[in-house]
User: What shape does this take?
Amino acid sequence: MNNEMVFIGIAIILGIVSIILAFVAIHNEKLSIAIIAAGVVSLFASVLYLLMAAPDVAMTEASIGSGLSTLIFFYVLNKINKTRTDA
Amino acid sequence: MENFDLGHISLLIGFLLILVGFWGVLTQKNIIKIIVGFTILNTGINILMVSLGYVRGKTAPIIDDTVAQVGNHDVSASVVDPVPQALVLTAIVIGFGVTALMLAYAMKLYNAKKTLEINKFNDLKW
Amino acid sequence: MLRNSLLAVVVLVMGYMFYNVYSNYETRTELTGISQHFASKGAEEVGAANIVTAIVVTYRGFDTLGEVTILFLTASIIAFFLKLKDEESEIQIKHQNTSELLVTASQILIPIIFLFGIYVFINGHLTPGGGFQGGAIIATGVALMIMANPNVQINQHVIHWVESVSGVSFVIIGVLGIVLAGGFLDNKIFGDNLGEFGTLFSAGAIPIIYSFVGLKVGAEISNILNKYQKSQKEL
Assistant: This one.
């Protein structure tokens, strides 16, 4: 029973932080902070998958959702900012 | 509350992330913010699907020493549901592909009109 | 203001529908239906220790074929959209010198990352992992290569050939499954003996199928990253 209580506690903390970060991602003015907040939501979702006994899904979400997706967002952001400062 | 365990918590997290992502897609004006909202919506839906396959107290669906070997007794009495996990695996990869495609479109739209506000793109309106 | 309040009403109605589903939900206590069949008979029929791999490759092989098709379509559309004109492709990207730490560390880390990615998709039927995860890890290695030297010329021909050959081999093995064994992507095409359970050479054709999927996914995502990097040169 003790093990399960620890899992439930971790899940509650992860849940509260992800919802707060999701709000930050939507409402913040700077785009780079919004993109990083979305990446951290994806990372916490990966830990949640591990708590629910799904290791395959956790690996896929961590590498694709948190790593590659954030990288592609930053490529586009860099291109847009560079063109904006040239013009 | 009685019976408040990991399945309920993950279901709640999934539902709330879907609502926040949906709100972001509907109200934001910057195209990149809309795509960020879409990403959060995708994450919420995937958490929802995996949490529907959670069986209380069981372990991961991989047969090794902690789960009984083949022929001794039933594997299906000690693993969680493997079918939603297989479907979510596909869904995550497809979600990434769609996000990459949307970002390529956003880059092309910015090249055409030098602005990222979605209200300025009204060429197709009456 | 009116628009925002109407949208808030829409979201609240959705929240109410979700609440109805949530309040009647009870966590399950046992497997039923087809999941029970997959879990209990998966080891004997397919021979893979990882049940999720057995489902993705053998039991629901058509879904994997659809996903591979969608990824291929996405990669081609992005390559079409972000095409450079000929005179722009010789521009060198001006950048501040990448730090020596990154350059040196990447020379050590990139072969290890590729090796780890290949390990993950070869052992997909024994440990958590598989083709999609291994392909994403290989693409991360390529991303590190691009970050260490923004003007690196990745050999396009190698990526195209790897992607095409992997895709065609995947479909050929699937059709061989129809001819020699039970159905599309059946893994008993090498005869009924599935090898010893839990070793590397078990589960029939599953390591071969997953290796092709892993190489294809890795090549496609590397191509997408390369196109995004090249598009920084566009005027």
